[in-house]
Automatic annotation (TrEMBL):
GO terms for cellular component: cytosol. Residues 45-513 form the Amidohydrolase domain. It comes from Nonomuraea terrae. This is D-aminoacylase. CDD domains: D-aminoacylase. One of its GO terms (molecular function) is hydrolase activity, acting on carbon-nitrogen (but not peptide) bonds, in linear amides. InterPro entries: Amidohydro_3, D-aminoacylase_insert_dom_sf, Metal-dep_hydrolase_composite, Metal_Hydrolase, Metallo-dep_Hydrolases_sf. Coiled coil: none annotated.
Length: 529
């Protein structure tokens, strides 16, 4: 049989964690064939990869890329992960996505989603509609999606701060069940974000039971990643135990000055749970800065009723004073990012109508104009109709390294690709950064372990059968890189610069990146575990 592609003489890092070895890797009909080095196999295209490594395509287990490919036009954003070797993205994280909802609420949610993504991205009643929309848009890599609890809640109750009625909860469970049956990858929560934060533990348990029936994981942005991170982790464990769902902790971190160093307690707790047979994993990105919405810096009640209600409160001096006091004094059960760090750690990443603010901290903007930082933030939110992205410099390096080294931790960028602004460099830089800085330069991980965290471990957790390893008959998604030079190029000043040392990326047997440049091939599809 003549191969479509032969990668000859590469260091094969197969995604299983096995020691690397020299081999030839063939591709035929979108599937792998692993051959002895120097096999002499015949192929339509041959890549001499001596001195390079070949690995399964990287699986980004945590993205917010739900709508960016549907907007069109911003190729730099869409191609950034592909240039970094990412052959599959998992979106719908942190409780937020573009489906599902009751039909009557779709127009309202579509309007909210379009504001958030900076364009008309649509909104769908279920996973099938979402998948069909993406299938109609040519893409270079694959996409899978979780079902967001916050989206479910907004799609049934609206963005309101109250418990779900039994009938509403039953409807949420039904919508979740339908989307999971159609191929969504699991249930996600973002319990610091509205409207997810308005839900109690019992509500999430009921939904996680639905995920458990489908054999799919409960994936959670904990209710607190700062001073109450251990308490929030125990809530997640309780939800998983009561529901029977496997637990996956999103972007595990201990952020804010009151939580620095707490990974010395959270990670041993996770290790003990695993030793007892509890199915728990996590993901991590290799940076000490996070990124989210500026509105998440406000107390949860500020967003009760949605964006229109938030902007009305921001325009009310009395409501502003309440918010200011809440940040200064804290609110029971609320992760208070500014109170745990300060406005000097909050930089504006995206404010389309005020680009001059991007890249500057709220404290810097306030000082330049002799104003109170909270008022600067509030005015910017009001002027941008609630849609401002920030970068929060809230972590320390020792905690990041500890999570990266945990054997059950996989890699997720937590990338939030939206047109314009200065996004976090993790969208373009995460995977090459792990291979360069943390594997080659610091020796925190060996190469086989690092690749497994990006590939085989991720595929196992999210049910991506036949992916994540290079083995005979597996799906031919792969990346060829130079272990001696691979590294991130993206910076906070220039967040979409391509990586170094990533030579070739193959998706479904087709070359989508050749010699570091994107090709015209668009073989990506929507994956349904």
């Amino acid at each position: 049989m003549r191969l479509d592609l032969l990668i000859r003489g590469a260091l094969l890092v197969d995604g299983t964690g096995a020691p690397p070895r020299t081999a030839d890797v063939g591709v035929a009909g979108g599937r792998f064939a692993v051959l002895p080095a120097g096999s002499g196999a015949d192929a339509r295209e041959t890549l001499d990869a001596a001195g390079l490594a070949v690995a399964p395509g990287f699986i980004d287990v945590h993205t917010h890329s739900d709508g960016i490919a549907l907007l069109g036009g911003d190729r730099e954003l869409v191609r950034a992960p592909v240039l970094a070797g990412v052959t599959a993205e998992i979106c719908g994280n942190c409780g937020s996505g573009l489906f599902p909802a009751l039909p009557g609420r779709v127009p309202e949610l579509r309007a909210e989603a379009s504001v958030g993504f900076g364009g008309d991205v649509g909104f769908w009643e279920d996973f099938a509609g979402f998948a069909a929309a993406h299938a109609a848009v040519p893409r270079a890599n694959h996409l899978a999606s979780l079902v967001g609890h916050g989206t479910l809640r907004a799609g049934v109750l609206g963005s309101v701060d109250r418990p779900a009625t039994p009938a509403e909860l039953a409807t949420m469970c039904s919508l979740l069940d339908r989307s999971l049956a159609q191929g969504a990858a699991g249930l996600s929560t973002g319990l610091i974000y509205t409207p997810g934060t308005y839900a109690d533990t019992d509500e999430v348990v009921a939904l996680a039971r639905v995920a458990a029936r489908h054999g799919k994981p409960y994936v959670t942005h904990l209710r607190d990643e700062m001073s109450r991170v251990e308490e929030a982790l125990e809530e997640a464990v309780e939800i998983a135990r009561r529901s029977g769902a496997a637990l996956h902790v999103s972007h595990h971190k201990t952020a804010g000055k009151y939580a620095w160093g707490r990974t010395e307690r959270t990670l041993p707790r996770l290790a003990r749970l695993r030793a007892e047979g509890f199915d728990v994993t996590c993901d991590v990105y290799p940076y000490t800065a996070a990124s989210t919405h500026l509105s998440a810096m406000l107390p949860p009640w500020a967003s009760d009723g949605g964006t229109a209600a938030l902007t009305a409160r921001l325009a009310d001096p009395g409501q502003r004073d309440r918010m200011r006091a809440a940040i200064a004094e804290g609110v029971p059960g609320w992760e208070n990012t500014v109170g745990n760090g300060g406005w000097d750690r909050i930089a504006i990443a995206r404010a389309p109508r005020h680009p001059h603010t991007e890249g500057r901290t709220v404290a810097e903007l306030a000082s330049a104009h002799g104003r109170d930082p909270f008022d600067v933030a509030a005015d910017l939110l009001l002027a941008e109709r609630g849609e401002v992205m920030i970068i929060s410099h809230s972590m320390v390096e020792d905690d990041v390294r500890r999570v990266l080294a945990a054997p059950y931790a996989m890699i997720g960028s937590d990338g939030v690709p939206k047109p314009g602004g200065r996004p976090h460099p993790r969208w373009a830089g995460t995977f090459p950064r792990v291979l360069g800085r943390y594997t080659r330069d610091l020796g925190l991980l060996d190469l086989a372990t690092a690749v497994r965290k990006m590939t085989g471990l991720a595929a196992e957790r999210f049910g991506l059968a036949g992916r994540g390893t290079i083995a005979d008959g597996a799906h031919a998604d792969l990346v060829v890189f130079d272990p001696a030079t691979v590294g991130d190029g993206a910076t906070f000043a220039e967040p979409l610069l391509p990586p170094k040392g990533v030579h070739t990326v193959v998706v479904a047997g087709q070359v989508v990146v050749r010699q570091g440049e994107e090709t015209a091939a668009r073989p990506g599809k929507v994956l349904t575990p």
